[in-house]
Amino acid sequence: MLKKYKHSVLTDDQIKWIVKQKIEGKLKNEEITAVQGISVRRVQQIYSLYKKNGSLPVLKKAGRHKASVTEEERKVIIEAYGQFKSCASYLENIIKQKYGLKINRMKINSVLKQEGLAMSEPKKWHRKKCMKENAKLIVAR
Length: 141
Hints:
Helix content: 55-70%
Number of strands: 0
Radius of gyration: 25 Å
Structural class: mainly alpha
Strand content: under 5%
Largest sheet: none
């Protein structure tokens, strides 16, 4: 039988429940995993952290940390835009060559949006249905 896990972040209440069940010894690890939708190893990890620290484990915030834009980068982006009046894709290369800084295009675009120098274009966010169908046809060939 295949095991399927939910890939969701456990809440504090779920962690508290898991530890409580392990302390009371009413449920086995396999039964806890069936209820919570996590692996047996994860249950073991949570309980071992509880035994080690003596308190309920607190999970870290999931995902990558956002890198903030420094004031120097912000000034360079605005100066380069004022001089060249071009989009973030072109500004990325211009800033790299002229100022010697490597700034991500998405950072440049976010700064331009904050300053009101660029606007978001929602029509470009999603692929059109006909484009998806054409891509499927090309792959099928």
